[in-house]
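Sample intake sheet
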Amino acid sequence: MEFLDQIICGDCLDIMSQMPDNTVHLAITSPPYNLGIDYDLHNDNLAYKQYLDWMKRVWLETKRVLVPGGRFALNIAPTGIKNFRPVHHDFANQLREIGMIFRTEIIWYKQTMGRRTAWGSWKSPSNPHIVPSWEYVLVFSKDSWTLEGRNQDADITAEEFKRFSDGFWYIPPESQRRGHPTPFPEELIYRLIKFYTYRGNVVLDMFGGTGTVAIVAYKTGRHFIHIDISPQYCEVAAKRLELARAEQELPFSVSRIGRQVKGTFLFNKGASKLNSRKKAKKPKQAQLLESTEVYEPEE
């Protein structure tokens, strides 16, 4: 498949429409939240119905390209306080309407309350605000609960499986933004890829940003397809991928707590000018992540 292991710059619907049916094992993405976030090229302030209609078209393409049993992990945050819209519910309803199986929801606890200022009616029941310090990862399957694969290509460890199967994931937000307002932390993507795919599977991010899904897929022995409309973000993703291929930047640094494609292929799998550098020995999969602390809420 021509899209495999590529950083592709273009509109996600234009690019995805050219992808064959039943070719992706896991899609992971966090779409624009339509909250007026300052993305490079995207208008993040659409009318809500227009926003939902656009996203439904993306979900339909996502379902089409997934293999039977393929998974879709959708990261979405609760919306603002004053203009609250349950976008996570609306997206879940859309995906169920088009026939996707709703498997589970993961609570990604980010512990960002230290920066909060919006108390509402301070120390009063008049109008207090709940400020979310979490985001959701909604997980769906296409047609079947089961993803076919070889047992020898399942590389998650027993410790990881036990830890990741608890749906409360304490992972601090990404501190290195690389010019993007809302990048994924690598550990979040690592958990989803290891839990839901086999080695050699194909992982798609149709709103790929600065390439975290592509980078982690590459590091864990999966294929990837990265799509983003921003040349700036795609250039960052391409440079990160080039560096990962040349330097094998492992282990991860984990913090404590039909039509002509309207896109440009920025990075091919072939030879790189950095390939002449001596590559570091690649560690075992179990060494990809440092051990993380377990979050224990106060009584």
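Comment: The domain at 6-113+128-287 is CATH 3.40.50.150 (Rossmann fold). Residues 14 and 262 are 6 Å apart (CA to CA).
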